[in-house]
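## tool: complex_structure
## caller: assistant
## args:
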Amino acid sequence: MDPFSSAAIARQTWELENNIVTTTAANDNSAASDAIFYYDGAAQDAFQQEKPWANDPHYFKRVKVSALALLKMVVHARSGGNIEVMGLMQGKTDGDTIIVMDAFALPVEGTETRVNAQADAYEYMVDYSQTNRQAGRLENVVGWYHSHPGYGCWLSGIDVSTQMLNQQYQEPFLAVVIDPTRTVSAGKVEIGAFRTYPDGYKPPDEPVSEYQTIPLNKIEDFGVHCKQYYALDITYFKSSLDCELLDLLWNKYWVNTLSSSPLLGNGDYVAGQISDLAEKLEHAENQLSHSRFGPLIAPAQKKKEVRKTITFASFIT
Amino acid sequence: MASSSSSGLTFKLHPLVILNISDHYTRIKAQSQPPPTSSAADDAVSSQPPPRVFGCVIGVQCGRTVEIFNSFELLYDPSTHTLDRAFLEKKQELYKKVFPHFYVLGWYSTGGDAQESDMHIHKALMEINESPVYVLLNPSINHAQKDLPITIYESELHVIDGIPQLIFVQSSYIIETVEAERISVDHVAHLKPSDGSSAATQLAAHLTGIHSAIKMLNSRIRVLHHYLLAMQKGDLPCQNSLLRQVSSLLRRLPAIESEKFQDDFLMEYNDTLLITYLAMFTNCSSTMNEMVDKFNTAYDRHSRRGGRSAFI
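## result:
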């Protein structure tokens, strides 16, 4: 079909220009691409014994998430609405990469007392892992994920302490945060993968990663702990069958793409963001009047905020 | 064995189920056939027919609409052609805790076509759900086909040779997505760069998506147009049912004309313009602020560097 081929050419040119590193899964259509799905129990055990992460807090640098795990996590996060939800991820490790093959939800709703909730969830987790193993999923639990509806992908104080505990007793362990509200409003998946530094470790000064707007009431929590963990690069992979199915699926849901309207779904969220921005501007103004050097610090941050609102506005129009 | 279903139920399938089944199949296949790098005797192994996987689908049924949301794996005993019942119940309990609204709607399997032995499993599942659905995924990758290799079967009691028998009949289904599902499926399908989050790439990605969707719409309309032209010329036999559908579709355009809609639409439009205006304002004032700072630095009379000003 003619439009198909020109669309395909356009997409490929775009991919080339943007240096998209498609994992070999997408390009190779031999059995080698699906090799990632093979679980080598012996190799995993050997890796566990070795514990190369014990000496280097910055050991794990990348995360590969399977298409299925991503879909499950995003759908679960969105189904929670404005309540934080959490779940666990299963997978394995490969050198300095943590591979997430699957995810499942836990029957607890996140509140500030999340540490207690984990005790309830243990029984569920054990049951689920056992049944899964019987059904052919041999991977171990390799991390946990939870959602921050509307306030960005970062680790709060409680998250940081939970993760530090996890990294002491359940290595290798990964923390993933998803923001379903921002995902839907931006049309792009908001996800972040983190690992904490052990207590007392001073990280080398890394450049600040991509800036994200954080609501005023959470910004203190963010600032206090933001140096205690680092973000890992996330890439996605899918099997050859997945590729095929997803391509064909496009034939069916293109209608949904056209008919989706970010405005209707996110009116409240956008209004909330605008009022939050207004508060921050007032805050900055107050700072200005208190100190002479206020104007030097505040505008840099304001500029970035403003840039974000402009992208927002361009989306909703 | 498969003819059109007449039960009148509409089926909605979520992409999550499709990915679940595909993942299950790929996993089992990968475990039974170790990766090519491990041994040289793999050629014999890879020529085996791919294993069949089985599982259960869960979802919600409201009236005549059956919506399949999720699925999980089941254990299959090939000697007795039955599914492990205890396992199913255990798994069902676990899923009930997290998704209390979902019920067992049926089962799934992979393969080319529905087989005789599948009826045994279907009957076993009828104890849990009176009329279960059977979702079949064909894992053989065929690049020529344009349609999803998934079929949904229902069971119907037909009288064949004087004996009432249960046979599988095919049903049509539509793909239903929640907004979040659509975005993540889109994201993975096109493997966009995960760290290109600047405004430009985000907007570009968004527009690319819309552009492809519009292209699709355009091509579909063109196909219809050619078909109608051919019918008019007489190349193709006139199909009145199709003509009726097309005319009813055309009569529905323009879609919404009422005054209330116009009011609401204009209100939303005004709101968005207002916000854009506000954003532009803020940007302007910030740029102005920056310019003033730069000006002050360049022409600073109270400079501590002894009156040296930089001209650029």
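## assistant note: Strands of chain A lie at 62-66, 84-94, 97-110, 140-147, 174-178, 191-196, 229-237. Chain A touches chain B through 106 residues (CB under 8 Å). Handing back to user.
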